[in-house]
Design goal:
With 345 residues, this protein is an alpha/beta fold. Helix 1 crosses helix 11 and helix 4 packs across helix 5. The longest helix is centred in the middle third of the chain and has 14 residues.
Length: 345
């Protein structure tokens, strides 16, 4: 069977071309993709490749999507042709050291799914079993495609333990940072958001509902603004980094109060390091947290929030492109001129 897809050949070299799609194997399902979204991870993959997601060349990529089942492999229970579904981009094995302890996001055999920038995709057996969800008829494919990225934020919010009345600072206003703002507000927190991009700063108000928004291009040393925002000017209860740069990781410790929490959510490049004042860390009892990825539990919780319209994720879609314009969409995302681009094969 032939289909159109986007294939990654090397950094900054992707092609829209006709490729083969095999019939689904035992336990697998084939999905016709109705909506896919651009993502920061996909932009990084486009720019420099990816050690986990790109296993061979050429390779499909893209991982946030929803669609309709068109074929089913043998012994695949619970799904039928014509079902509307949303899939996570991974699934834990359920058997390793970490899975046995309920730390599914740290699974030693975590299987990732890549290839959503295409007309069809085959969903591996492990994801069908643990992370493929039926979609209600009244849920749009565009909204359902947000379940995977939102699941990461739901995981992060829950592990951070944000409470009503706390002051929370979010630095980095891509879709992940914006969802951190919105979910923090849903927890009853007061939120100050900081970034550089005018489009994202506006979204922090409109979508994130931030109480205060800081343009970091105007304030090179924003510490005082964060401190002044906090209760009694003691420092934030929680500071969340959603950029993934070591130099910003370090600065997050200057925003929080004694006993506060620094959440280093943005992943940095392997081999980088940071310096922390150990006196500040120890004697001020600063809690440091770093949450990776999501679990089946948080994927389902994100899906529920979207279906129950707890947050208007569709506001994060700034453009809609056909599959053949995926590279243009990624470049627009990379240049900060889009939050999310909806790809419709």
């Amino acid at each position: 069977m032939k289909m159109n897809s986007i294939q990654f050949y090397e950094p900054l070299n992707i092609k829209y071309e006709e490729t083969e799609i095999k019939d689904p194997k035992e336990g697998e399902v084939q999905v016709k993709i109705m909506a896919a979204l651009t993502c920061g991870t996909d932009v990084k993959t486009y720019k420099r490749g990816h050690p986990v997601l790109i296993k061979k060349i050429p390779s499909g990529f893209g991982h946030e999507f929803a669609g309709i089942i068109t074929k089913i492999g043998k012994n695949t229970a619970g799904f039928n042709i014509g079902d509307r579904v949303a899939a996570a981009n991974s699934a834990p094995c359920g058997k390793c050291f970490f899975c046995r302890r309920g730390e599914y996001n740290l699974c030693e055999n975590l299987e990732f799914l890549n290839g959503a920038y295409a007309e069809y995709i085959n969903i591996p057996k492990s994801i069908v079993k643990r992370n493929l969800l039926h979609m209600p008829e009244d849920l749009s494919f565009e909204r359902a495609a947000f379940a995977e990225p939102l699941a990461n934020v739901v995981h992060g919010i829950e592990k951070t333990g944000i409470k009503e009345g706390q002051t929370v600072g979010v630095v980095g206003l891509g879709p992940i940072g914006l969802m951190f703002c919105r979910l923090s507000k849903m927890k009853g927190a007061r939120v100050i958001a900081a970034g550089r991009n005018p489009l994202k700063l506006e979204a922090a108000k409109d979508f994130g509902l931030a109480d205060e928004v800081v343009d970091l291009k105007k304030y090179k040393n924003p510490e005082k603004i964060f401190i002044d925002f906090s209760d009694e000017k003691k420092g934030l209860d929680v500071a969340v980094e959603c950029v993934g740069l070591p130099e910003i990781w370090e600065r997050m410790f200057t925003f929080v109060r004694k006993g506060g929490t620094v959440h280093l959510f943005g992943g940095c490049k392997e081999g980088t390091s940071i310096s922390i004042d150990t006196k500040r860390l120890h004697y001020d009892e600063i809690k440091v947290l770093s949450i990776f990825h999501h679990t089946p539990l948080y994927f389902r919780e994100a899906f529920r929030l979207i279906y129950e319209e707890k947050l208007p994720v569709e506001k994060l879609i700034t453009d809609t492109y056909p599959l053949e314009r995926t590279e243009e969409a990624l470049i627009k995302h990379m240049n900060g001129k889009a939050l999310k681009v909806l790809i419709k094969p």
